[in-house]
Write a structure and sequence with these properties.
184 residues; alpha/beta; 6 helices; 9 strands
């Protein structure tokens, strides 16, 4: 649904896209399959996840650049500017862990899922700060979110100067995505 949301906004086919917290690379690879001329990169803190993403890229014959980076310390690297930034970062609070299905807990690394109750927007703040500097004017940012924090995420993005901030519901009617634009 996140990829479909991005595609529905009709990004230029030759745009530059960054997937933050790429994991297996599914978002970056799905975007590349729809936007063949786009320059797409995916970052993750986990080298193990990146190995899987690179294998998936090779299996699918899709040219996506995957590299290791920590978005909480993004200033340590030299970054180009991007037209689209997308992320499905850890957003499940520790207190919600007991509500998770066993099949998810058995196959997903905890650092890809959970965030401290005290700072549920930790990654969103870091990504918004990054995007405020590295997203081109008129560029778009897309998040998958915890349905409990849609309004807070929207306010946080506004605080970074983003406009046209919209909470989007998923196929089950839950607030699941937020998209915004960096002003011209």
């Amino acid at each position: 649904e996140l990829v479909a949301l991005i595609i529905s906004d009709k990004p230029e086919n030759d745009c530059r896209i960054l997937d933050i917290g790429t994991g297996s690379g599914c978002i970056a690879l799905a975007l590349k399959s729809r936007l063949a001329q786009a320059e797409i990169s995916g970052i993750d803190i986990s080298e193990k996840a990146l190995e899987i993403a690179r294998k998936n890229s090779k299996i699918n014959g899709l040219d996506v650049h995957f590299f290791q980076a920590d978005i909480l310390n993004w200033q340590k690297l030299d970054w180009p500017d991007f037209d689209v930034i997308v992320s499905n970062p850890p957003y499940i609070t520790e207190s919600e862990k007991k509500l998770m299905h066993k099949n998810v807990l058995d196959f997903e690394p905890e650092n890809a899922l959970f965030v401290a109750d005290a700072d549920p927007l930790l990654f969103y703040n870091a990504i918004a700060r990054f995007a405020s500097e590295k997203l081109r004017r008129g560029g778009r940012i897309y998040f998958e979110i915890n349905e409990k924090f849609g309004e807070e995420t929207k306010k946080m993005l506004a605080g970074f100067g983003f406009i046209q901030i919209v909470i989007v519901t998923d196929i089950h009617g839950k607030s699941r995505f937020v998209k915004a634009v960096k002003p011209d």
